[in-house]
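Table S2 (text version). Query chain:
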Amino acid sequence: MITDLYDRYLQNPKICTDTRKITLGCLFFALKGPHFNGNEFAKEALNKGASYAIVDDEFYVTDDRYILVKDSLTTLQDLARFHRNQLKCKILGITGSNGKTTSKELCLHVLKKKYNTMATLGNLNNHIGVPLSILSITSDTEIAIIEMGANHINEIEFLCGIAKPDYGVITNVGKAHLEGFGSLEGVLKGKTELYRYLATKNAPVFVKDNDYKLIDKIPEECRIIRFGELKNSNYIIQYNGAQPFVNVLLNEIQIQSQLIGDYNFDNIALSIAVGMEFGVESIDIKEGIESYVSSNNRSQIKKTNTNTILLDAYNSNPMSLKKAIQNLENIKHENKIIILGDMFELGEETNIEHQKIIDQCLKSGVSNVFLVGKIFNAINNSSYTSFDNIENLITLLKTQSIEDAFVLIKGSRGMKLEQVVDYL
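Corresponding structure-token output:
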């Protein structure tokens, strides 16, 4: 079954799961979700130009353009595994609580200076996204960078079984997705499933030289590639300040990134180590890093008529938020303001972690803090102005403008904090 489907895929190697994004000749996989049934859209996909529709409900099969399978998602994953087995390229697997996407993009900018390189598009890093990413790899790809996300135990192990990485890195481990992992120890166990997979291949692992918690979890079967500022590292990269953009030194070559915040040093250092390991010239590594500009509401600097905004509204958890506030403290500006949104999936530690952030803000010396979301609003204790939702904050800003300020905006994607930018 998979070999026949793979032959059809090779005729036009394009996969689609959304009828709004159909391309001529693609394979449409009818996936299901909590609020939709992809089988209902199979006919529309074919009418828009899909060559075949893979469905898992016989009711929708009306001609030979429909391919009936037991489960459309499982078939998509099986097709990705089969395709992976045909590929000759090397795959770098990236996971971690924070910095996955930034690290992935930096590595892409560095590696493509020498190799035909592809990387996970956006954050397609789950049980659907990883198969789609694998199926987007072409036969002439030399290196692929696959981002893998997880919110429960065994998920990284499952994704490794599809992507089959040859190299791996865990950017860090922090309090993210605690509802699924149960605890910080659960997060560590889940993320290090990548190490345990790589050990079966005696494969290399990139790790920050002072991240002893992760180093301790690397199996002896793996070759450890250390990077950072310590003298015993395989690749020594020196932090050279961030005012506000991170500057690093590589063999006395100064690299001026366009990334704000000293927390991005680890992401930059990783991309340098990856480039060095794969034989990219230092000057090309420099050009690759310096050409990368963050997008998609991730640590973006935006200028309005009167304010400078650091927009980081794609993801938020205690670890990344703590670092963002610490970074703001180091930025030289007389009027610093923070707009924070709720952090999600923290389970029993939800209130504790939100209170810790409020306490950190109180000690930070910033001019003002606005808290957005039902969680912050419930535990604020009148320390700062808080709002149930972003619309209520916008209503305030329409009458009380913020001027001549450096504004940090940080929150989980679901809070939609980027909407406030137009009112600053």
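Notes on Table S2: Residues 33 and 94 are 26 Å apart (CA to CA). The domain at 300-423 is CATH 3.90.190.20 (Protein-Tyrosine Phosphatase; Chain A).
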